[in-house]
Write the structure tokens for this entry.
Amino acid sequence: MIVLFKDNNLLMISTILIETLFIVLMNQQIYLAHDITNLKVLLPLANVLVVFMGGLALFSIKGIERNVKKRVEVNLLKAHLQQVEGLLNSLQSQKHEHARHIQVIQAMLYLEEIDKAKEYIDGIAQAYQPSDGIIHVGHPALTALLNSKCKVAETKGIDFAFSVKCNPLNIKMHPWDLCSILGNLLDNAMEAAVQNTGNRRVALEIKYEDNQYVMYIYNNGPAITAKERKRLFEPGFTTKNSEARGYGLYLVKKLVDRYGGNIEVKSGERTSFIVHLPDQNQGRGLERVVI
């Protein structure tokens, strides 16, 4: 991909340079010529060459744009996979730790060290942090994503809460597309929330309303102006120095459109991104609440 990106860059630069040089030479010939009759014969060919090189330059620019979008998409997917990998490593570590505690307690009971076993269990209970537990939402990929975002929010000092009030398995969407939509929107929300000097808050709520699935993503970061809201989903547009944010929302919009949905953006004291996805089955899923 990087090689293609460099080749398109080289092709575009070379085409523009050759086209510019050709036009300069033609202008020079016209300026120096005493009789331009012969040059008039070559003008149609010259025009064709200029148009051809212009088209080649445009093709190269489009190729660069496609490669940039693919590279950003790959980087975003890589970031999500790294977060999921971190969550899996955390789970593996907890599993190993629990197994070790069980072995120690089992040994104490075999040795009839009942008092020491009770003391050991009390010590484990005091050290146990409920926040380390995994919250399941009935959707494996979504569970991994949301729990990984909890870890990210914790490192950034963000109060992150989520509530799933329907069965997410009934959302007719590829798991990777669903995680890409929510992952990008949550990343965007957290990036905004960290700019708040007070309590930083990000929330996600997934509901079933009016024969559609609705996802609400809230943050209490700086408000988005009306002018910025009009351009939020344009490729490359960003209010920050971040290439991923510039294409992240654009990719979200493309995915939502692909599934026949739409996105609303509201911004005031808090900013809300609201994703509407039609229910392909036209039937309400099993409701559940996870907080």
